[in-house]
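Entry 14. Structure prediction run on the chain below.
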Amino acid sequence: MAAAALASFECRWHRPWLPVLLIAVAVAPAGLPDSWIALRPSEYKELSQTLRIRNARVVAERSSPLGLVTVVESPSIPFRHAPGLSLNANMEPPPQLAVFTDGDGLSALNRYDGRREPLAYLGDLTSALPYHLLDRPKVLVLGSGAGADVLQAIYHQASAIDAVELNPQVIGLVQDRFAAFSGKPYSVPGVRVFASEARGFLSARDERYDLIQVALLDSFSTSSAGLYALSESYLYTVEAFRDYLRHLRPGGLLAITRWVTLPPRDIPKLLATAVAAMDGAGVQQPWRRLALIRSWKTATLVVRNGEFDATDIAALRDFCHARSFDVEYYPGMREAEANRYNVLDQPYFFDAAQALLGPDRDSFLARYKFDVRPATDDRPYFFHYFKWRSLPELLSLKAQGGLPLLEWGYPVLIATLLQATCAALLLIVVPLWAMGRHNRRLPIVSLAGGVAASAPPSGWRLGMYFLAVGFAFMFVEIAFIQKFILFLSHPLYAIAVVLCAFLSFAGLGSRYSQRMPAHAPYMTGHGFLSRRGNHCRRAVGLVVAGICLASLLYLVALPPLLRLLMPLSDPARIAVLVLLMAPLAFLMGMPFPLGLGGVAARDKTLVPWAWAVNACASVVAAPLATLVAIHLGFSTVVLVALCLYVVAVASCP
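Output returned:
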């Protein structure tokens, strides 16, 4: 509304009262009662269900672009959040507050008074295994959240603890708002806390650790419902595993805990990713460096920077036997040792480990009912498990409660793409058909007053040009937003900076395109149209050649260059990103106005339709780019965009 108020001053139908009205409408929500505009989360979210408990109430709430953080207390029915706690445990958790992010992602804020004894339950989780294989390790916790993993390290007397948490508001709640309850775990001697993104933190530091622990970051309900299927996660990619292993001391451990989902999806994908990372690092026998254990609800994968020896294996077996955890894999393990306590129909996890560590790995990945291929930085969709060939079987299980096995994010993406495509076809083809019926030869008047008669440009060729330009621009923009997330170590910074750079420099490129030969008046008798069309195609061809050259150079040179520049400060990295984006965005801003200028010179009635075609392409391009990236990666998205630019040159009006 405020933007419309500013724009109304430039309109020829401007009225003095219009800006006042628009600004009044813009500020009106500030005067509405809070109850009218309060957020009402879905009743199916964990937060909504928790608040239905008698006397449960919200005691703190913080909001930022990273999410809505809500802290809840429940005096009537105490929280007992201990993911995968051993059924043999004889110590219950201390009093807890529940911490939700966007109404899901439950984690616990434990009461801590400086004593170790009340934290004993943290030794009966699968995530405690590394502390029985290492002596007073130096620990890095990635995704420390409300601090449970930090308390686990404190309980096991770690020599030093570095905690990394992306959302500074969570750290503030733990350290300030609930300091008396939490005991300020991030201020315990030997503990350091960093508000940072995990991969960016590691890339900017050379420090090495005995244990790198990736916390259980999401709720089981959200994960099992497949709602993360379209979420990019750079924590669980092959390149991420290589970073983790590079920051381990000799003999150090990487430990990742995930929820147990049946049929197995998360854990086989983690195993495949770990094996791929070690293969890429030149490890000859990765099967000697892996161990996997499972409780009734969680599983912990451990990767050693070195080989497990007999002492390690004995300690692992003793740890699991005392807590009735299932050993799913260790070097030299026999099948009879698997699936003993929390019994499944088959030893699924052991079988998956054997297949992924054996010679038929590719065959296993191809025939498995879910997509458990390793995620990469170019294809960072770890939570995407959907396979089309499994869809009939999943739908047949609907009556038996099998629909949660369907990763809903992916079908919703397909439905969105189909809806957008149908709407675009309706808005493009129908007007094109109508114009084709009423097409006639129109006079084009030159600046000198002369007339050159010719048919308007072909609607189909014109549509192809603006479709190709619209798709290509969005594909490149979306792909580079993803590629720069790691460099800026923050998804919000990457989106804001890349969008700002693209739109600003593309606008400058559009402005500069007016000076190009395609916009000059070539009006020499009856040869006007053909000459102008040739110059337009030549100008677009030169611009597209520059776009292709710059994009291919970026695909090859950016990864090593960005790794080299990662230690720079945030302002310096933002400046580097803007400078890198400037030439590409400048060139990408030219094809649309160049084509539009060519259309306007031949038939101005087609200009609004050309705008509409380009806009429809931009809408359809967003889900289509995501779909291509899920299956083929963001580099392929860029290559497809370059092919579309070549199509645009061939169909230039």
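The chain has 23 helices and 14 strands.
Filed with the rest of this week's runs.
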